[in-house]
Amino acid sequence: MPTTLCFFAEWQEILESVLQSMEEESSKLEMHISWTKTKVQNLGAGPDAQNLVVNGHTVDGVSEFIYLGSKQSSHANSSTECIPLLPVS
To answer: Which stretches of the chain are assigned E, i.e. beta strand?
Structure first.
């Protein structure tokens, strides 16, 4: 059964480490990450997110995407819209 996860991190290095750990732990349960669907985005101020490479998999940096029916944009403060949706996911 597909699961949607949303991680928040202040630094790209932390996010990369979390994704590496998630891949390692989920593989023990024979679960796999859909790297083509995995995205990284900067919510709020700062430059657009850059692509990450996690264990040889490219994670695309995006400036906007749809999360649980709500458009999340790097150029607006979407974190206030995204956080209330977390218990739903």
So the answer is: 39-41, 52-54, 57-62, 64-67, 70-73
From 45, 51, 57, 46, select the one nearest 20 (Cα to Cα): 57
Enter the DSSP assignment of 14. Answer: H
Query: Which is higher by pLDDT, 88 or 35?
Result: 35
Say how many CA atoms lie within 13 Å of 11 toward its Cβ: 3
Q: What phi and psi values does residue 37 have, to the nearest 5 degrees?
A: -95, -10
Handedness of CA 9, 12, 15, 21 (dihedral sign): negative
Write out pLDDT tens, residues 33-55: 899 888 888 876 677 788 999 99
Q: For residue 74, which of 35, 33, 54, 45 has the smallest C-alpha distance?
A: 45
Cα angle for residues 13, 16, 17 (degrees, 5° grid)? 90
